[in-house]
Amino acid sequence: MNTLKNFNPIVLLIYFIYVLFISIFSFNPILLISGMLGAVLYCLVVSDKRSLLKSIAACIIILLAVTITNPLFSHNGKTVLFFINDNRVTLEAFVYGAVLGLCITEVILWFKCFNLVFDTERFIFLFGKISPKLALVLSMTLRFIPNFIKSFREINRTQKLISNKRRLKRYLNSFSAVITQAMENSIITSDSMNSRGYGSKKRTFYSRFRFTLSDAGFLIITSVLFVLSVVYKTDFTYYPELIFPSINFLEALGYLSFIILTFIPFIYELKEGIRWKYLISKI
Amino acid sequence: MVKKYLKYLFVFLLIPALIIIGAVLYPQRSFVIVSAAVVITACVPFFISFEKNSSTRRLVMLAVMTALSVAGRFIFAPIPFFKPVTAMVVIAGMYFGCEFGFLTGALSAVISNFYFGQGAWTPFQMFSWGIIGFIAGLLSNPLIKSKIVLIIYGVFAGIAYSLMMDVWTVLWMDGTFNPERFIAAIATALPVTAQYIISNIIFLIILEPLFRKKIERLKVKFGL
User: Fold this and answer.
1) Which are the contacts of A151, defined by CB distance < 8 A and separation ≥ 6?
2) How far apart are CA A141 and CA B92, in angstroms?
3) Å from A211 to nearest chain B CA?
4) Is the domain of B30 the same as that of B91?
5) In which domain, by residue range, is B43 found?
6) What is the chain A residue with the closest CA to B70?
7) Quick check: helix, strand or coil at residue B175?
8) ipTM for the complex?
9) Lowest mean pLDDT among B32-41, B71-80, B137-146, B162-171
């Protein structure tokens, strides 16, 4: 079940921009770990466990690789651990590498969530807001792709029976046939569209997505949390010396806001899940 | 009318605003913000001009070319290293013009990522393929006339795509341009770049005459 999808795609897009903006630019390990937890928990509820495990394994490999290789590229920093070929290997570079690895993996995980929420329908809706014509192109393309693949398979199968050309040659021949078919059909399609009056008036769009009260609520809550976590952010310094800032009340507020912001999908999903169970047991 | 202007304002104000806010708040990471914003704003003029003046035929043709380039990726998946996307984008650019080439490249990136997963790299991929299509449109005359120029452009497109993605990797990792990491990125991407180049050349040599013939045929058949 994926109830987060019920929100308006624009609101959801803004939410993802908020989270990714802070994740990409803040370089703060505490925020990054919190973001990772939020994303993993959400994927745990929504997606299947195997693909999540695969992503986590990939993330661990990336994290290790980036941490270990970063000192090779960056020789800044005060605390020298040892030398390789007269190049300094510093503690700061290791720490920076680890945070960089966290940043990359966190963004990968959030894009996993993004892909879970944004299907093609929502994408076309968003594109339609910016450019209706491109949205039409997008939806036509998405329909053409399976069509072309299907007609390629049919032609290729027949070609296989009637000739004993090598595979590459046969593939190219069949692809060429698909291209001819597609291009001629495109002219026929566009003439047909014109004769049915496409372009004579502004195109209207039907969409299932309306802006409801709960969308407004979601937008306001996430915006407030975003602003709070950006305004009361804490900066970590890595070069030339590691400086971890102390936390007072306002900075704690900033941290808390971002932690809530990243846990919203998980909390919402959990809430809906509980509600669903509760309603079932009453029937 | 008001809504229309609001839309443009949104795009042209929001992105610069993002750059400024990002650069002021996160000075360590300002390069990443600027590069992302540049890449996104680069696409906007093409989208706007397509929105304003494009015939139905161009619209459907764009959908067909984009669909062919993405479908080609699936069709040739069993044959290793064969990815026709770049070649298709180049052909689209050289036969249908700069704008068309850019849009084919950008849309191919978005749509193939529907199947392979969107990521932070999507805008950069859109931009890289878009630019390859755009330049193909600028060079359309020499590209159509001479096979050698076409092959050289195929090699160039393979290298350029790789390099642009490497620049983005480096910016993303260090926050600034770190030449050492850039060289390392190029070195690790070398086998992939070689594959790109080879598949670009093969596809351009094979597909280009096919398209030439088919477009000529369309011109005769439908009197374009």
Assistant:
1) A178, A181
2) 15
3) 17
4) no
5) 1-53
6) A145
7) coil
8) 0.85
9) B32-41
